[in-house]
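Hallway conversation turned thread

IA: we were arguing at lunch whether anyone had actually written out Tetraacyldisaccharide 4'-kinase end to end. Turns out nobody had. So, for the record, here is the sequence (357 residues) and right after it the structure tokens. Reply here if something looks off.
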Amino acid sequence: MSGIHSILRFILLPFSLLYGLITDVRNFLYDKNIFQVTVFDKVIINVGNLTVGGTGKSPHVEYLIRLLYPKFHLVSLSRGYGRKTKGFIIADQSATAESIGDEPMQFHQKFQNEVQVTVGEKRAEALTKIYEKLPFTDIVILDDAFQHRAVKASLNIVLMDFSRPIYEDFTFPAGRLRERRHGAKRADILIVTKCPNDLSKTAQEQIQHQLKPYLKATTPIFFTGIQYSTPKPLFENTSKAFSNTLLLVSGIANPKPFEAYCRKQFRVIKHLTFKDHHLFTEKDIPEMVDTFKHIQSEEKGILMTEKDMVKFKKFIKHEALQEIPLFYLPIEIYFLNQAQQEFNDLILQHISTESNP
């Protein structure tokens, strides 16, 4: 950390202590049932975190969808960050990133037959509507609702970015924690995400040791990494070939792993970054096209993340993009230590127990 960042963090620490105290009081009031907690007699799996953005929730939610379909009728419920609508919405053929948010739209496009995608900022109200309007629902996967204490999930899966461990972080604004570290004690499973492929057993044990004071003694810890697939064309009817000389475009919370991988695999000339959940508009296109045209190469293209792809598909007929090879990079997660089956068994055992109390 640079000297300027250290000084800034020191200045902000009193505000972080106040913020942490406020979240502690809020959690205490929920723990003592002074604030109302709604409990549903259904399997609700929450995938959340303690950190603001960028821990890899979307690919982990997708992993759960692949694991649980077709054995169960699945519904995902997200807040729908970045959408221009309010209230509860069940995604249908008219859904867009503007109407339901970028991540829910990604699930909707990718798993239309596997999961029913819904959004709603008031989770308890949204869940009630899900069970009324979608009575076939077996399991709801809550996306990013760990701090939404008004609903009690039957299973809390908490994600922690390997490069931003909670035990080295602080609450907002000096750090990126949404609540103090000991909030992780509500986790039933903790996953350390975005791990290097060669993360040693010793390093894993050190992380587990550092996490131990903030978790229940029974909370299992898993380690996952990101696996990138072959770039795919943004528009299905494209005839353009993929080129290794690239302009990267991303609007995600932590674009560094995306850029690092691309620089190892391809010839990256420049990376245009936008804020997380950025909804692309026509105003963004001239900058992208101009930057692309200034790349000194005959064979070149634009590569973006899968999350950004769903927000950009609306420009399929945009005249300025017709001659540009546009591609996106799909990702999936994988488990280190061959722990995939152990994780799967934990999830399925939980579902069995909750479904047959």
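OS: looked through it. The chain has a mean pLDDT of 94.
IA: good, adding that to the notes. The chain has two domains: 3-72+138-223+335-355, 232-329.
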